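Margin note from the TA: students keep mixing up input and output lines. Inputs are the sequences; the output is the structure of the whole complex. Example:
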Amino acid sequence: MPDATGLELIAQELRAAQGAPPRTASGSPVIETIFFRGRGTLLIEPAHIRGVLAQLRASGYGFLASVHGVDHYPAEPRLGVIYELLDMSRVDRITVKLLLHSERPEVDSVYADGEDGPGWPTANHQEREVYDMFGVIFRGHPDLRRILMPEDYEGHPQRRDFPVGGEPVVFTHNERTALGTPK
Amino acid sequence: MTRQPLSGGDGVDPARLRVRDLNARQLLRGGELQGANLPAHLRGRELEKEELERYVAERVLTTSLDKAVAWARSNSFFPLAFGLACCAMEQFHAAGPRMDIARFGYEAFRASPRQADLIILAGRVSIKMAPIIRRLYDQMLEPKWAISMGACCSSMGVFNNYALVPADKFMPVDVYVPGCPPRPEALMHGVLKLRKMVQDDPDMGWRDRYGARGTEEVLSQEPRPADASATAARETAGA
Amino acid sequence: MSTGEEGGGPSTPTLSEYRRREQSITLAPLQEQLPGAARKDDSREELLTLNFGPHHPATHGVLRLLVTLQGEVVRDIKPIIGYVHTGIEKTAEDKSYWKVIPVIERMDYLSYYFNAMAFCSAVEALTEVEVPKRGQYLRVIHLELNRIASHLIWLGTSALDLGAVSIFLYCLRERELILDLFEMSSGQRMHTRYFQVGGVIEDIPRGFEARLRKFLEVMPERADQYGAILNSNEIVLQRLRGTCPLDAETLLSLGVSGPLLRAAGNPWDLRKADPYSSYEDFDFKIPVGTVGDNYDRFAVRLAEIYESVKIIGQALDGLPEGPHITEDRKFALPPRHELATSMEALIHHFKLVTEGFRVPAGEIYLPIESPRGELGCYVRSDGSSKPARVHMRDPSFVNLQAVSHMVKGSYIADMIATVAMLDPILGGIDR
């Protein structure tokens, strides 16, 4: 894991590459750097995800270990997508995080190759899972279907406002009512 | 403990002791006691003379034959090689060298549902898998039995959530084996209970057992010529 | 071979497009699936889409494969998963942290200690709880035993797929010994809830060490026997050597890790690269393959069994004295004899059992090396006693994407062998 100063340097490089002044957050891809328990996280603007990942790949973080989602309900922007990167030669990990509003949960997919460079083939099933569970739409993914739930399922189960569901547990005090009315 | 006389005292009313009062004729006549096992055209009637003799002969023969067939069927279940999740690992161990399922004759795990008669639902049934399991169960030929192994398919198990379905919501289950996962010994106990069930009950039709007549899946609308004779045969032969 | 529907089902008026496709696998949907497929007009060279599973003896678990064949050659393969999706991550959000452990253990159901280890380590990193040395060594012993047990089932079921049925029974015989050891230390054979946040729930009983040493003597000989049977079997060698190789570059871009990556020549193992839980104290090698074909994947996993035996032996020899779980009463239950004398212990016990411990707000991703690759656990805490999000980055889920690259252009039989060598565990894939 890069230490705190290393993380800041990476953030500065990213801002510089996008042509933004190094210390301000406006217009630059990196909103915030978070250093917590020895691990660094870059919170970035969703529009720049492909560029940031490409730049990190160029600086050595060549292995995309995980793409997963998180729901910060009720705080907006609510849907987060987190990319875990690993640099095998330096045994270094870095996290890239972006936040999306639930009204327009769209972000560019990093799976397919685009005009701005090669993609990350490992993101195929993982982006589909984030779509299935949270409803985040990955623009440019050639096959964005549900992967874990049946394809005609409605709702995105791992959002925090989706009920856990399940069968009612039947005890003697509710055995007549819990199972519904008999036919 | 003192012995109580059968008549008088508290409790036992001799009029309610049916064992001595029943005689063979009444049993064979098919009163309300035997109503369930009678074929449809004989129910609610008293049998006389040749009909009675024929009925007696049939019953004696079919009862022993039924028992023999039940004994044979119970000792040679062909389980479907079907494992869903963690319980499948313990199912492997039940078939393994220590808790050997082959001791009882059940080692022939068949891959095809057409050749199997016992489906052991080993593991959690998700909503995506439930229609497929139902299709597999329908493909099995009668007589067929189902064991729900583990807590997840019997009740919802550890996970009581949107993704799982308990097995008895979509298919009839004969034996439930609790555990998470149940030890191979527990699975064997369940299978042996099923064996006992099969041996003691000469009535084979599962649809009668669960009140499920009319739940057969109809594959095509137009009646096939074989169907007419099949239904006629079923009516005359009885349950 | 195919257990899919020939066509037709119950004639309901409204069927969604997905259900209609599910019920009839014909050539028609193929054209949507393979837009660029080379289709000759000669009717003898049609492409056939075959549906493997989800109920199939050769798919490990309920994996569904849509295989497009030209004759016997596989042209395209699409894995369809989700048939054992249990909503584990959603259920975990509802439970306090120590109640999540049994739920999360049932994810990758062959390597249950690894699931618990990933989650417990993530929570320990969030709460900055130290695991005492004895606890770490006990964890390593159980993890490596579980690795051997997982590889034994892999070996048994893969050999079963290839036709070598007796290996399955031999492997189960050894696995019974390991499950006896687990039962000795925790009371359960599988899903033992042995790992807790801060260490392990109980110290090992008397007799565990003797039994474990006997097992360690026996296991290498038995592994030699498996090697002897399989390595000199012409059929196994023909089916595994040279079939479905894939180079390390492609595997890395697909996110594959674990024995699959090591078989292709990349010696990446988190136990050596980024040691956790005292793995740096032990001296062991990482088996690495050269070609990356099915035989290398098989050989790497078989060699890992020997290495795990070595690690357990060293851990047992060097097992330090001390507590087996952290002494911090805010996270670990106090020992029962203290409850009679100390009021504080009673209060801690009460708070831990009813509400559970609180974890400071934050999020963390912590990877460990499971028998299938990099198993990562992402935990997000919002400061309460229940996690706000638990996500397991399961290695099989990511490794499954490699199957289409490996299998294109080979025969169906090679596809079966490759899926076996991939060691997918559907519980982890579907969660």
